[in-house]
Write a structure and sequence with these properties.
Blueprint lengths: L12 E2 L6 H4 L33 E2 L15 H19 L5 E6 L3 H18 L2 E3 L2 E2 L11 H4 L2 H7 L6 E2 L12 E3 L8 H15 L1 E5 L11 H14 L4 H15 L5 E4 L4 H7 L7 H13 L12 H6 L7 H10 L8 E4 L11 H6 L3 E2 L1 H4 L12 H13 L3 E4 L4 H12 L4 E2 L4 H8 L6 H11 L36
């Protein structure tokens, strides 16, 4: 009989895949035992959770074929790479000839993603970045500027060694004719960007880019991946009024113990764009169908699929009934404190009734605010979304009802901050059981827990094609490195 290979502990410490939510949403007793380290990171900031880490982490054994941690490089080699990066930075900071201007679109979280890539593109081109212009959102009519949402001076200061950020074009370039590009292909490489823009940028001095969403490749050299995370999780700090109010709300939620944050995608435009139905009544379904007929260009899901096919494929947001059943199956206690983020649900408060009846401690920013606190942000959808982001990021447990920019960014932010609990609903596999009325509740709960053993926020090695700001392991969290980009 062949000897079994010795088991090797992973370098990654992760949340337990089967701890019920009941254990995560009760005030814990203090423990004198030290928390296990998280050795994959250079220096993980402490989790904002009040839960002891020993309740949240176990050792994960990785399949060495699918997940191979990058081996630690020779310290001399790492120092050499850092020296090369710093030397390139000095040259860029002294260059006053090239400037990159960008116009970013969409909601706040979509804009964040484009700003991240704008910084990286500026680094690739060796250009100074003019503070990004936020395009007025056609749905919400938000006219906020960069400094209304983000702390501009903090942004400049954190990136001072990577990219020079300027508030406006210098007088020497105001009369320049910018090289404007509106249709950059999807997922382009640094080499493509240099070959396409560098010669003209050197000649004209100004490059203007629009529509940056998913234009830059997700698979970049390591220094650029690290820069992506630096921008997303460190440089893009919210403006002081937003940050202060978001932290106040988080403190109010935490004042009576741990809390769960939900990002609910139940707005009217979400149902129209995804080709899905809210599950409220025939009357509401008709309204969504008619809206989709009037504006077929809004449908972003696969147009050749029926609603039922989309639902079973996991392409639809969970409605309130489904979110409630999922939380109960994962053993969330009835007295759990829940913060929900998102816009006004289609159908109003009645759309949330299944959740509010099961979990009475159910809050959002309107419930938590004191008179006048939200007035400065009236009709500023991006600022309100930023407040939601802060409260969700600081929660003990976070779960989105649907994928999207905010869910992915918070997923990465919570991983970067110490692998804080993040529940990814396994919609594709669990939906058939939601539709099976003959299944006993106990069996349904057992199946749902089993399906989510690997979907509870365990550190996940980034695979090719995935965004490093959603999956920061290992590029943004390891000392090791294997390459840097050509400058």
């Amino acid at each position: 009989m062949a000897k079994s290979k010795p088991k090797h502990l992973s370098y990654i410490s992760v949340p337990s895949p089967i701890i019920p939510l009941h254990n995560l949403l009760i005030s814990p007793k203090k423990s004198s035992r030290p928390s296990p380290p998280l050795p994959i990171t250079e220096a993980l900031p402490p989790s904002s959770s009040s839960l002891p880490l020993r309740l949240l982490i176990i050792e994960l054994k990785l399949d060495p074929v699918r997940f191979s941690p990058i081996p630690a490089q020779n310290p001399k080699f790492r120092r050499r790479l850092r020296a090369v990066y710093r030397q390139a930075s000095k040259g860029m900071m002294g260059d006053r000839r090239k400037y990159l201007m960008v116009v970013v679109s969409g909601g706040m979280n979509q804009q964040r993603n484009q700003i991240v890539d704008a910084v990286v593109i500026a680094r690739i081109l060796g250009a100074a970045l003019v503070v990004p212009i936020l395009q007025v959102n056609v749905i919400w009519g938000d006219e906020s500027e960069f400094s209304d949402i983000f702390d501009l001076e903090h942004f400049k200061r954190v990136l001072a060694d990577d990219v020079r950020v300027v508030s406006s074009l210098p007088s020497t370039h105001l009369m320049s004719r910018p090289v404007e590009e509106k249709r950059t292909p999807l997922h382009v490489s640094p080499r493509w960007i240099r070959s396409k823009y560098l010669k003209r940028l050197n000649k004209e001095g100004v490059l203007l880019l629009r529509g940056l969403d998913s234009r830059l490749s997700k698979d970049l050299p390591l220094d650029l991946q690290k820069l992506r995370c630096k921008v997303a999780f460190q440089a893009l700090k919210f403006a002081a009024p937003i940050q202060e109010l978001g932290e106040k709300f988080a403190m109010r939620m935490r004042s009576k113990g741990p809390y769960l944050a939900l990002h609910l995608r139940m707005e009217k435009d979400v149902w129209v764009r995804t080709g899905c139905l809210p599950g409220l009544s025939h009357e509401y379904d008709v309204i969504i169908h008619e809206e989709r007929k009037l504006k077929p260009e809004l449908l972003t899901a696969r147009s050749n699929m029926t609603y039922h096919e989309r639902k079973l494929a996991g392409l639809c947001p969970l409605n309130a009934v489904e979110v409630t059943r999922l939380l109960k199956a994962l053993e969330a206690p009835k007295d759990a404190r829940i913060y929900w983020a998102g816009g006004e649900p289609f159908g109003g408060p009645a759309a949330l009734q299944p959740l509010t009846m099961e979990f009475p401690n159910f809050y959002n920013k309107e419930n938590l605010s004191l008179p006048g606190e939200l007035e400065p942000f009236a009709k500023k959808a991006s600022s309100l979304a930023a407040i939601d982001y802060i409260v969700c990021e600081k929660s003990n447990v976070f779960m989105p009802s649907h994928g999207g920019n905010m869910g992915h960014m918070i997923q990465g932010h919570r991983a970067f901050g110490g692998h804080k609990k993040f529940i990814t609903p396994n919609k594709r596999q669990m939906l058939p059981y939601f539709l099976d009325d003959s299944l006993p509740e106990s069996e349904f709960n057992r199946i749902v827990k089993e399906l989510h053993q690997g979907s509870l926020g365990q550190p996940e090695i980034r695979k090719v094609g995935r965004d490093v700001t959603a999956y920061p392991v290992p590029e943004c969290m390891c000392n090791s490195t294997d390459t840097i980009s050509a400058v």
